[in-house]
Every structure is written in C-alpha cells, then in structure tokens.
Write a structure and sequence with these properties.
The structure is a single chain. The chain is α/β, with parallel strands linked by helices and about 425 residues long. The chain has three domains: about 90 residues, LOR/SDH bifunctional enzyme, conserved domain (Alpha-Beta Plaits); about 80 residues, conserved putative lor/sdh protein from methanococcus maripaludis s2 fold, CATH 2.40.420; about 250 residues, putative lor/sdh protein like domains (Rossmann fold). It has 14 helices and 20 strands. Helix 4 packs across helix 14, helix 6 runs parallel beside helix 14 and helix 12 runs parallel beside helix 13. The radius of gyration is 25 Å and the shape is elongated.
Length: about 425
C-alpha cells in the first residue's frame, strides 16, 4: 500500500519520508533491523538525528530519512519498517474500507503482527485489542474501539483498516532482566545449560500462581508415552496449571493408561506389549463415550487417575482440539477447527506464560494466537519445533531441546525446592 501523498517529499529523482523510532532500539537490535529492511527493500536512509540512552533503562530516539525511487517502493518499505515501530513524523489517520465480501478482507488490508498496535482515528491514537498475528483490524463505528479480527469472522460492511498509514507498532524489547528469564531470546541448542532454564521456568510458574496472570500448558501425547504423566499431574495438583491445551491423543492415551496401564498398547510400568494392546486406546475412548464424557467418567468413578482426572478434580480448564486422524474422538474434543481456534482465543486471554511440551502442531497453533508479550517456552527433543515457532512470528519463544521425561522430573523437583524454600523463609 502506497504511503499517503501529503507526507512525502520529492528530492531530485527520489521520494523521501521521515520516520522516528523510540524506545530501547539499540539493545533490542530494533534500529539495525529497520535500517536493514530499508536497504533490502530497495531504498536508502539518512540518520538525521539520534539520541542514545546512556544506561540500560534509558530509551533512545532516532529520526531517519527514508528514500526510494518510486512511490510503490517507498510504501512497501514504510509498511515493513512500521511493523518494527518506525512511525512517520507527519501522522495521519488510518484508512478504513468496508468489507464487501463475507469472510474476506478488502484488498490492501493491514495484516497484523503479534506486537502491541495502535491506530489513529479522528486525530487520536487508540489501542488495538485482542492482539494477534495474521488478522485484520476491525473498527467499531459506534464505540470507535478497534480489535484484531480473524479473516473467517469478517462480516459484510465491517470497517477494516487498509494500508499502513495511521498504524503504529510497539515492538517488544529484548528482556534486560537477566534473573527472571535469562534465557529468553537465546539460540536453540542441544548444548544449552538446562538447569538455569528449568529454574527460570519454575520461577515463572510460581509467580503466575500468585498473581493475576495465568499459566497455560500445551502438551503432546509423548508426555504419556514416556511415563511422564505423573509429573504433569503433580503440576496440576500443585496449582501451577490454569489451562491445558492438547488434542485427542493426549487425553486418549492418558485415559488408556489409567484404565489399562498401557500407552499405545505398551506397558508403562514394565517392558512388553499387552495382549491385544493395540485395541486399548479405542476401548478407552469407547468407555468414555458410553458414560458421556471425561467429566462424567470422573464423577462416576470410571476414571480414577491420570492427567484428565486431575484436571477435572482441580477445576483446571482444558481444550482438546481435534484433527482428521482422530479415533473416536472423545466427547470433549472440538472437531471443528475454526470453532476450536475461536475457543482457544477466548481461553488464552489473561495467560502470561505458556509452556509447550512435545507437540509441534498444537504449539504452532497456540503460538499463532498469542501476543508477543506472553512469555513462551517450547520444550521438545526436536529443535525444528522451536525454530518453526520463531519462523512463523512467535519470536518470543525460548527453546529447550531435551526429552520430556527428564525435563518434567527436574521441573517438579525445582518447584518443590522453591516452594520449600519460600515456606522456610
């Protein structure tokens, strides 16, 4: 989308526009990233003024002249650097267009990031609610409020922001608090020291248990297959989990283990496969369906242990999102993908920390819905899971490459030690 013509000046054979960048733009590497975007986009820059903060607590400010050979190139560059917090000096209101097709944005719509965003309406900057990447921005004609809107929820005549004019983004700055989350933003590596990272995760879980923010866990069936379900049950029992997000597989194999002592037909307390063990997961699903669901199975005494049992007993909210390969599925599984996505958005409100364990697809799905200021830790034996999250825009994700069993065991031990230390203090 081309920039508004009233803010552009022509110098010789190029178009120029001044932008300013504020905040911790040096130590967060935002400033060099903006300059790189300008050059990579076919433009050039001139730093007209820069004031660098003298301490880590002081913000910086830069005034940069952006130039490009034509309006289209300049508009594209301004759009890219706007997502990193570069705002034109001469502010203008955002442009709005009415949706003319159900379930689709107008052409040229502004595509959101997961960063804090504001739009300018009638000369005033207003915050965009429900921040999420890969959405549009809906402006309510009655209240003037703005919020992120998924494409499939667009209704005809909705007022949607188009272009980058009148939109400003506030990038999350790199954490400067080394003690609380020292490993945030570090590279994914199998050789990364894990003890400090696990201690920081434990501190975060405890902090949110005491405060207004909630802890969310996104978990894959490997937690059950590796015999680690008991550790997750301890986390739930200890009040460290407010929301559990998973699929049919986690709940199914957890219930299979509770009813038959197996997971995928293999015994968890000894070596070997059970006789006709390959049927156990399906028989487990069938028993739950016959009594009317997981909660009903706990109430009737059919389900007396396991992760899902603990969730019901301790009133931990959970959402099971289905997939095309699910057997059954269990009655609580949401089989409509868009409905599951909508429910996940609702349940993730108020989450301040998200721990993702051994699940690629659910981790990416949840990561896409989280704003950039929610701390995310992804634990997986496969480094590509964490890399995929970062590549898709969930840059705040810290990765820990390890097997799920030793991680959960160490986490439970660390939480017990910290709780004991607090009690003694």
């Amino acid at each position: 989308m081309a920039p508004s013509t009233n803010t552009i000046a022509r110098q010789s054979d190029v178009l120029v526009e001044d932008v300013e960048i504020r905040g911790h733009i040096i130590d967060s590497l935002i400033f060099p990233k903006i300059l790189d975007c300008i050059c990579a986009g076919g433009g050039s820059f001139r730093i007209k003024n820069i004031a660098i903060g003298q301490t880590h607590a002081d913000p910086s400010h830069a005034l940069v002249e952006v130039s490009a050979p034509d309006e289209a190139t300049l508009g594209r560059i301004l759009g890219q650097i706007a997502d990193h917090g570069a705002v034109p000096v001469e502010a203008c209101d955002c442009r709005l267009a009415e949706a003319d097709v159900e379930g689709a944005f107008p052409e040229g719509f502004y595509s959101t990031t997961n960063q804090r965003t504001e739009i300018r309406v009638a000369g005033k900057w207003i915050a965009v609610d429900s921040q999420e990447m890969d959405c549009g921005i809906l402006v309510d004609p009655t209240t003037g409020a703005a919020r992120c809107l998924p494409m499939n929820e667009v209704r005809k005549d909705d007022r949607i922001v188009v272009g980058h004019a009148g939109v400003r983004v506030f990038p999350e700055e790199r954490s400067r608090d080394a003690e609380t989350f020292a490993f945030m933003g570090s590279t994914v590596s199998t050789e990364k020291p894990k003890a400090i990272a696990i201690r920081n995760i434990a501190h975060q879980l405890i902090e949110n248990r005491r405060g207004p923010l909630r802890n969310a866990l996104v978990v894959g069936p490997a937690v059950v297959h590796t015999g680690s379900g008991v550790y997750l049950q301890e986390l739930i029992h200890g009040g460290y989990v407010d929301l559990l997000l998973a699929g049919n597989a986690l709940a199914t194999h957890d219930i299979e283990q509770a009813l038959f002592g197996t997971s995928l037909g293999a015994y968890l307390d000894r070596e070997g496969l059970a006789e006709a063990g390959h049927e156990h997961h399906l028989r487990a699903i069938n028993r739950i369906r016959r009594v009317g669901g997981i909660r009903r199975a706990v109430e009737t005494g059919l389900l007396q242990s396991g992760i899902m049992h603990e969730c019901v007993k301790h009133n931990v909210d959970f959402l099971l999102a289905g997939s095309i390969r699910d057997d059954g599925p269990l009655p609580e599984v949401v089989t409509d993908a868009l409905d599951a996505q909508r429910q996940m958005r609702e349940k993730l409100r108020g989450v301040g920390f998200c721990l993702m364990i051994a699940t690629t697809l659910h981790s990416i799905a949840v990561g896409n819905l989280l704003p950039a200021w929610v701390k995310v830790v992804c634990v997986d034996i496969n480094p590509s899971t964490v890399i995929k999250l970062s590549d898709r825009g969930s840059f705040q994700t810290a990765g820990l490459v390890t097997d799920v069993a030793p991680f959960l065991r160490a986490l439970v031990e660390e939480l017990a030690a910290l709780d004991s230390s607090t009690a003694r203090g």
